[in-house]
Amino acid sequence: MNKNEEAPETTVLFARQPIYDRQNRLAGCELLFRPCPRTEALTEPFDGDLATRQVLRNAFTHTDIHTVCEQTPAYINFTANALKAEIPFAPGDIVIEVLETVEASDEVIAAIKDYKRRGYAIALDDYRLKEASHPLLAFADIVKLDYPHYSVEEFAALVVELRHHYPDLTLLAEKIETQEDFLLCQEAGCDLFQGYYLARPTKVLSERLPDAHFTLLQLLAELNRIDANAEELARTIDNDAFLKRELLNVINSSYYHCREEVTSSSMAIDALSERRICNLATVLALSKLDDAPHALQRLALNRAHLCQGLADYLDEEPISGFTVGLFSILGAFFKSSPEDIFYNLPLPKVLKDAILEQQGVMGLMLSTTLLLEYGDLDDLDWSTLAKHGLTPEKVSQAQQHAFEKSDGFS
Questions:
Q1: Same structural domain for residues 143 and 30?
Q2: What's the whole-model pTM score?
Q3: 277-331: pLDDT as tens digits
Q4: For 159-168, what is each residue's pLDDT tens digit?
């Protein structure tokens, strides 16, 4: 196909990698894209130019970029060719992320200068040099430092040198996998952080969970019993004054548009369904953990809604996808491993198998959710997903609907 021809309409899969500030507040999201023209072409070589063109044209078919990125800027990869195209987003909506493969030609520099003049922020991706010598540094607002590429000493020295030569630069440490990485980069002087460290449990120096945490885990297990009926679910909620109060406050908010005031847990279940109340009560119970960052709560919600959105396409759903997604990240909330958390809890075997072993159909839904979350789009098992009726179009729809639901859920 000629470079100037319009690409055929495609399904666009995307991964959203959150970017946090020094207080672990969401400061932006990098959006990674994988166009999927048709099922048999899913293994074709990745085309970065096509990916950028497709996202700028038709990636957001069910929701908008502001919802997907939670009202923060979207970091989008640009190749040299993509820099020459027009951008259908306002300067405050996106950060132009110049890929490390882009050469600093006169044409590229001219395009970057034009974008800066119009108010767009420019980021340099995957910075791996050990000195402040990149030819595009003078035009950058943000530099994304490839943290694993450096030793601790090299990284700290590079931050000092960049600060010396370009004091107005925002320094973003990427590929941060653990809390220890985050603290080291924070101490070095970085401003922003990208990676999966919030979802990784940090083991506390304790032989056992605090009593309050164990009590909360028991409540979560009781709320998510497979064999519980509506009356038992209502009783579980009613036995926790905090949970009942918060549930009724949320149900009676403008988001749910109830025709009459809901005054009991039983009324709430009748109004919204047993499963939706179970999901909402589970999230509200987790809000008791005052030390859990808000960004982690949002990450958990996004994972839970996406896992549920994928599971909604199954002919038979053995257990709530929402529960599988949410419980898969409990370790980060309680600073423990899933094995330690689940060991003494009366949780269904299908739930444990899905989370700990990624077994069964719900294990497939979770593994797919995690691949989408981490951006490993080329590792999706399309042949197995197809056996369960999950096409690229359905996966894409589930992604975007999950962000919409999370936006109104919290």
A1: yes
A2: 0.85
A3: 999 999 999 988 877 888 898 999 999 999 999 999 998 888 899 999 999 999 8
A4: 999 999 999 9
- Examine the domain organization and report whether 193 and 301 are in the same domain: no
Question: How far does Cα 250 stand from its chain's mean position?
Answer: 24
Quote the domain boundaries for residue 374. Answer: 211-215+224-229+283-409
Domain presence at residue 269:
no
In a domain, 371, yes or no: yes
> Among residues of the chain, what percentage have pLDDT more than 90?
59
Give the Cα separation of 80 and 103 in Å (integer).
8
Measure the CA dihedral 397/325/172/26, to 10°.
80
Q: Phi and psi at residue 314, in whole multiples of 5°?
A: -75, 150
Q: Assess whether 195 and 302 both reside in one domain.
A: no
Whether residue 386 is contained in a domain is answered as: yes
Q: How far apart, in whole angstroms, are the C-alpha atoms of residue 409 and residue 387?
A: 31
Q: How far apart are CA 347 and CA 285, in angstroms?
A: 17
Listed in sequence order, the residues at least 6 apart from 270 whose beta carbon sits closer than 8 Å to its beta carbon are none
Query: What are φ and ψ of residue 27, in 5° steps?
Result: -120, -5
Q: Is the dihedral of CA 176, 179, 181, 186 positive or negative?
A: positive
Do residues 287 and 246 lie in contact, with contact meaning Cβ atoms separated by under 8 Å?
Answer: yes
Number of domains in the chain: 2
Query: Are the beta carbons of 234 and 214 closer than 8 angstroms?
Result: no
Any idea what the CATH number is for the domain that residue 47 is in?
3.20.20.450
User: Is 169 contained in some domain?
Assistant: yes
Spatial distance between the Cα atoms of 409 and 27, rounded to a whole number of angstroms: 20
145: enclosing H helix or E strand: strand 142-146
Convert the pLDDT of each residue in 51-77 to its tens digit: 565 555 555 555 678 888 889 999 998
End-to-end Cα, the chain, rounded Å = 45
**153 shares a domain with 35:** yes
Indicate if 39 and 140 belong to the same structural domain: yes
